[in-house]
Design a protein that fits this description.
The structure holds two protein chains of two kinds. Chain A is of the alpha/beta class. Chain A has eleven helices and ten strands. In chain A, helix 8 links the parallel strand 7 and strand 8. The longest helix of chain A is centred in the N-terminal third of the chain and has 15 residues. Chain A is globular. Chain A starts with a helix and ends in a 5-residue tail after the last helix. By secondary structure, chain B is mostly helical. Helices cover 74% and strands 0% of the residues of chain B. Chain B contains 15 helices and no strands. The two termini of chain B are 39 Å apart. In chain B, 36% of the residues are buried. The chains are: A alpha/beta, B mainly alpha. At the A-B interface, helix 3, helix 4 and helix 7 of A face helix 9, helix 10 and helix 15 of B.
Amino acid sequence: MTQTQITTNQSANQQNGETSKFIGLETQGVHAWFGKHHALSNVSLRFPERTVTGLIGPSGCGKSTFIRLLNRMHEFIPSAAMAGSVLLNGSDIYAPEEDPAMIRLKVGMVFQKPNPFPAMTIRENVLAGIKLAHLKRSNHDEIVEQCLTRAGLWKEVKDRLQASGGSLSGGQQQRLCIARSLAVEPQVLLMDEPCSALDPGSTLRIEETIKELAEKITVIIVTHNMQQASRVSDYCAFFLTDGGPGYLVEADSTRKMFTNPTDSRTADYVQGKFG
Amino acid sequence: MSTVANAGQLTTAEPRRPWAVSRSKRLLGFGRMLAFAVAAFVATILSPLANVDGWAVAFLLINLAWVIGIASKLGAKERRDAVLRVVITSLAVLAFVPWLSIFVTVILKGYRAIYPGYFISDMRTSTPDDELNIGGAGHAIVGSLVMVAIATVVTLPLGILTGIYLTEVRGRLTFLVRFIVQSMAGVPSVVAGLFIFATLVKSMGQYSGLAGGLALAVLMLPTVSRTAEEVLKLVPDDIRSAGYALGARQWRTALLVVLPTVRAGLSTAAILGVARVIGETAPLLLTSLNTNGLVWNPIGGTVASLPTYVFAMFMYGTEYSTARAWTGSLVLLALVFFFFIIARRLGNKSALKANANRRK
């Protein structure tokens, strides 16, 4: 059901074409460099609103670099450079007047390794973004319950919200990090291999969480796990490198990518023939 | 004899440690060490070797002699192992000797003048030559604590800000700031005193506790800054990234995420700084000097402190004044020891470490 809804959304956008701005996140001819090393070349992709897009491809093909470009985390690396534009609801997030902190507020991120703030309790961790970004919110209890519920953690921690975030298991910590990202109400959530450090049970729980999240926000997830990509994503983008910079091979609906991809390399990769 | 029967046995299993050294063997080893220690003691009486260090040398030699004695019974590898073990253990004991020697000497000579009044009375109505049951170092203890408190209040914010500049901001001046902090650590303490003397004491026209505290602050700042920097470096970058990814600006991330994470470590930095300067004598001789009475006011002229008290009492040179000086040293040593223990305990409580321990 969700699938059809998204398709109609997208086709509506496509029919309007260039006359109305694209709602969601869009990259146009994006490149990335680290010093002289050209890491990513010419990626143009659209992430429609309220969809899950999986970024797949072998290690070192620039997926993580790409995802960090989408919320301006790329620029924290001193030698980093980029080209092209990233549009959030039609406006370039790299425009000179844009404030990177405000961009990151709208485009949240969950990292590969769970990184709850060690000096804070579970409750404080969830509310950290609100405190850090100076947001005015009065219904803190409500936010904590709502975000933890959406991250699928509420039932497990509701009786020990004052415990340290570090006292949770790895899978629970990662879901706490998801809840923390949700508290600032991002429009897009980027996830960089969020399950790579987790056991199968926690992975499953987080995948359910991702599907629930997609009812409200856009999710972009980097994953090395083909089954995971096929289970959670509506769209897939396949990246590759031939020794030079990483590039986009093709992007399409997940069903098409896994059953009848245009490029033979995509077929080989999703069938596990390399990578 | 079936596997089922074996499984039944497991339910009544007793926990034991087959790898542990047996009690008799341990007793034997301990007894041998005790015998060697006594023998070394006898040797220090009979031979020209003297004192704790002489004892340690004798102890090392006796241990070596024993190893050589039993060496013929052992195989080549066992022999090498036994000799190395004795050498390493003895050298470790030897490294411990100066520390122990100082401690034992100060305690043995310092306990004599201790009575409850020592910690509360001053020397206003008594001379250094008086009996040891009147007068005391209360004024010196208070003076030291007041000046160290001033130094801490000045240094802690400066030191933490320096640490933040070096690790979080990483501005253009990072190299210069780090260079200055490192060379400040090498400034002779008397120069720090001279600096405050030339600036503050001259302009105020009098010695004061404030001047003493500021002279100590000059010496304390490099310790606190460098410890703060080391501690802040321990904060993993992914915690900072998490802050930025939530839409936080750098200073808010540093203030609300990074600093609370190392709260314990920063307390350790402060305490290490205090322990570094509480025994400083030279800068205080140029800034706060010494006095016989209890002074709380840091801008009301000369103030006593434990190091200058000890110095003055030794200089006086009589039996009783020397005893008072030793007791002052003992109090000073106890204070430093106390601060170090607090620093260690706080260090162990750090949030980062607690996290790491849980993950193990």
